[in-house]
Amino acid sequence: MDGCSNEFASFAHGTKGLAVISTESHTPAKSRIYRGQEMDKDKLKWAYPQPEKNPYQLEWDHLILAIRKDKPYNEVRRGAMASLVTSMGRMAAHTGQIITLDQIMQHDHEFAPEVDKLTLDSAAPLVCGSDGKYPVPMPGIKKTREF
Question: Is 0.90 topped by the overall pTM?
């Protein structure tokens, strides 16, 4: 988009430093950790050795090797947990609370109630109020639910 940053990357900031989780559309990740909050080469604490293997190719290599050796290969748990992490982040952002794995697994909130029953003719799962406005999250006010 014109006039906007065009970077696709993931970063983590903490009290002791900055971590580059991935850059350049995630491959190569070029992961590294800096002391402080600036990506200054003089403050580089750690960097993953380069060149990195392509993670997408590695996935295929592992799958093909399992097929050739007739070994089980299942990414379901990993995929489900990765998806669950996004739900934890959404719940944390929408409630303003820290959300643990145990909390999200035991929580009664449904992000998409009865999604398994939706059809092309179904009403939208989220509808506007009588004022014509949709509900919005209120972090710190509604601490246990999204809306």
Answer: no
